[in-house]
Amino acid sequence: MMDTPLTSLPFLDRSQPPQPKSPIRVDFPTWHEAMLPNGLKIMVYEQHDTPVVSIRLYSHAGALYDGTHQKASMFAFALLMQGTRSRTAEQNCR
Predict the structure, then answer these.
(1) How far apart are CA 6 and CA 92, in angstroms?
(2) Which of 2, 7, 67, 83 lies at a CB distance of 3.0 to 4.6 Å from 88, suitable for a disulfide?
(3) Angstrom distances, CA of residue 58 to CA of 38, 45, 50
(4) pTM of the entire predicted model
(5) Angstrom distance (rounded) from CA 82 to CA 66
(6) Which has the closest alpha carbon to 75: 62, 90, 91, 85?
(7) How far apart are CA 77 and CA 62, in angstroms?
(8) Distance between CA atoms of 32 and 66, rounded to whole angstroms?
(9) What is the rounded distance in angstroms from the CA atom of residue 59 to the CA atom of residue 76?
């Protein structure tokens, strides 16, 4: 184990900001977007070299989206976190 503090080592000169490196090239996959009849927007990209399907669901949530139904998001959150008469909070998380 080293007894020398890391800040005193020569490769960690904190008196000068680090020099930026050249940006790396990133090729993002081509996305396909569609709107389902129920208004759900889907975004898909295919990666045929990996035999995996991954699904993520994002939704607009929170008080900002409650509109005329004030406190609806807080009520829904409470149901998820505390459970209901017929479902525990753990069952809601599955």
Answers:
(1) 47
(2) 83
(3) 15, 16, 23
(4) 0.39
(5) 20
(6) 62
(7) 9
(8) 29
(9) 13
Neighbours of 66 (CB within 10 A): 15
> What whole-number distance in Å separates Cα of residue 92 and Cα of residue 51?
29
89 with 79: CB under 8 angstroms? no
Which of 34, 57, 59 is closest to 44 using CA atoms?
34
SS3 content of the chain, % helix, strand, coil (to 5): 20, 10, 70
Percent of the chain with pLDDT over 90: 11
Residue 51 CB neighbour total at 10 angstroms: 6
State both tokens at 89.
């909070």
**Residue 83: left if φ>0, alpha if ψ -120 to 50, beta else—which one?**
left
Are the beta carbons of 42 and 57 closer than 8 angstroms?
Answer: no
pLDDT, tens digit, for every residue of 21-37? Answer: 999 998 888 889 999 89
